[in-house]
Write a structure and sequence with these properties.
By secondary structure, the protein is α+β, with helices and mostly antiparallel strands. It contains two helices and four strands; from the N terminus they run E-E-H-H-E-E. It has one domain: Trna Endonuclease, Chain: A, domain 1. It is globular and about 40 Å long. The model has no long low-confidence stretch (mean pLDDT about 90).
């Protein structure tokens, strides 16, 4: 989902929680995790800040997650990877 300030790969809801999800795919899970860097963080936070008020007004809790993917491996879901935004 694109906003004027950044992009969110996925917006997912489970119960009362809405997660803005950054997805990284690389040859290994470790390489994917290495791409969760400050520049990425700023872009995801900016986009989440633009969208979060919509969900908060509806009574949802919001967080930022990451899903790391690599060929032949199960995706690794990291909840609430960027706290305090």
């Amino acid at each position: 989902m694109r906003t004027g300030v950044g992009e969110i790969d996925l917006v997912a809801r489970k119960g009362n929680v809405v997660a803005f999800v950054e997805v990284k795919t690389r040859p290994t899970i470790e390489e994917a995790q290495g791409f969760l860097e400050p520049r990425t963080l700023r872009r995801v936070i900016a986009a989440a800040e633009a969208l979060a008020p919509i969900y908060v007004a509806q009574g949802h809790d919001v967080r930022i997650d990451a899903v790391l993917c690599a060929p032949g491996r199960r995706p690794l879901h990291l909840e609430n990877v960027w706290q305090g935004w």
